[in-house]
Structures are given as structure tokens and as C-alpha cells.
Amino acid sequence: MTRIAILGSGFAALTAVRELRRQKVEAEITVVSPREELHYLPSSIWIPAGLRKAEALRLPLAAFFARHQVKHVKASVTGMQAAEKVIETDAGPITADQILIATGGRFIRKLPGVENAIIPCEGILAAEQIAVRLKAMVGGTIAIGMATNPNEPGAMRGGPMFEYLFILDTLLRREGRRDKFRLVFFSPSSRPGQRLGEKAVDGILKEMAKRGVETHLGHKMVRIEPAKVVTEGGEIAADLILFQPGMTGPAWLANADLPLSPGGMVLADGLCRVADRPGIWVAGDAGSYPGPDWMPKQAHQADLQAKAAAANIAATLKGEAPKAAFEAELVCIMDSLDRGMLVFRRGKINIVLSALKPLHWLKRMFENHYLRAYR
């Protein structure tokens, strides 16, 4: 029987499993990942406000894998011999006929002192740390910022940082202690969030001003100290620092014979094929793909890439030429705990809806809809 190995157990990996079975692929599917759980990070932004608990965002996958006749190997990928289709793991080598890389990206930790900041999108634990730190504070300065990969400017995840900024502002106002806190947003970009579109950036900056958020924009970062963010344009004294660095590929790529982009991600085409490596595919944040400069690193885009990759694997197994290309599409509801701002981009279309209460509830409804397949 044909063997398909899917590396990772996040959005792209699980969407690929579902799509392969929907395409009636009867191959042996093995998922390789360190945990048999899906961590639904989009909702971790609500943990500091108590709107979500960590345990509700960790979904066991054993039943999902059983339904789709998937074997799970609990292991971390350490390298790959792509030419021989051998995956190196800390539990031993795994061979397959078709390999889909969906291990996600990695946040760049080269900035001196980055360990002094909490990186929110590194996981649910980070959101729990923010909740604990915020609860213990009686006042002070919270500095929230983001940066990108200088070798691949699109490799970033900035949306959650705007959400944390607005959610913490809303939460502190609800608690009647906003006047005891100073909120500062920082970024090397003078107009952060440009992938969302110029209209969205204008709206975000206007919202910051409306909420009394100070900004420190357009200055290259130098280092982060335990109680200070240092940039070439000055310093920000802070009691709590949330920082989202740019992204690069997973560490194991250093031990793989795979072509990489300037930013350190797996180089792929519009069909999610890895360049010059037949039978090797990539979907989600681990890859670098052709497309517009605003193409996001987000779960929705990973799902679209995974569906295309799975369809192309199915076609290949039938002896057909792969032809499923993924759409570059950005869909984001930027939440502020009680309202949501919608941003949509596809082709030349760029829609921005101002913050509305129904959009907050729509984001919560989508969470329930999306997770139904795994609960």
C-alpha cells in the first residue's frame, strides 16, 4: 500500500488528512508530531480575559485519527533525506512514498534579550503566562510589539498582537483600572499591519489613538532588557513586554536536503510542490510560496494550501498531473473582547469592516464550527 507521511498535527496537517480521505485516497497515512493534540491558538487571545480556559483549546486527536484510519507516531522531526524520502525523527527513521511537510514555522529568537519578552503565538502556555502576569500587576507599562523576517518580510504574524493590545485595553477598562496602566505599541515599521491593507492600517492606528495607546514606530530594534525595549529611536520602560518576532522555517530544516527561501523556509510552487523534490509537498507556515506580498501566515491560508497539496497528492497517486493551485486569501476578524474588525483580501479585493459586536460573536461561532470535526 502507498505510504503518505504528514509531518505535524496543526491546521495544515489535519486539513490534509480530511481532504485526502474526502478524495477517497486509501493509502496508509502516518502523522508524525510530538503530541496527539490540536492546539487551537486563535482563541488563546481570550485566555487573559478568562473567556477561554487552556484545557478547552487542547483537543485530543485519538478519535479523529481513528475515524480517518490514521497512524500517529509521537516524535519530533529532526531532519530529512528528501531524495530517498526518509524522515529522520527522535524515534527513528520513517520512510514514505509521499511526504507533506506541515510542521509550522518558528519565531526568530536572534534579537538580544528576546527571552525577556513573552511571544504570544508560541503557544497556549504563553497566553497563560500573560494572564498570570497581568493579574499580579497593580499598574505600570505594558509594551506590545512585533517585527518581521528581514530576509522574507511576509513571514510574520502580526494580527494577534493588535488583538492582545485591544483586548487588554478593554479588559483593564472593565476592571476599572485602565488609568493605572500605560499601553505602548512598538514596531520597526512606521505603518504596522500593511498586509491587511492601507485602509485597515489607518483604522488600527486610529483605534490606538482613540484608546489612548502610545506608539513607538519606525525604529529598528536593538535589544530587549528585563524591563525595557531598546530601539534605535529610543527606549520604552516596561513592566510587561509582549513581542512577536518574524518567522522562519523549523529548526530541523538545517538537517534536510530541501531547497530553502531567503527567509529559511521550504521553497514551493503554487501547487505546494517542493522545488526539485518529487513526492515532497509543503503546506502552512513551514513553506515559502509564490503570491502577493500580503499573503498571510495564518491558519486559513494554511488550510487552503493543505487542501491543494492533498488534492495534488491524490492526483499523483492516480497517475494524473497535479493541477490544484491554492488561492491567496486573507480573512481576519481582529477581536477586542467585545467587538471585531473584519479584514478580507483576495486578488484586488480588500474589504475592511469597522469594529462591530456581531463580528466578535461570529469569531466565536467560527471557533465552534471549525473544532466540531475534532471534538
TrEMBL record:
It comes from Paenirhodobacter ferrireducens. Signal peptide: none annotated. GO terms for molecular function: oxidoreductase activity. InterPro entries: FAD/NAD-bd_sf, FAD/NAD-binding_dom, SQRD. Residues 3-302 form the FAD/NAD(P)-binding domain. Pfam families: Pyr_redox_2. This is NAD(P)/FAD-dependent oxidoreductase. Gene3D superfamilies: 3.50.50.100.
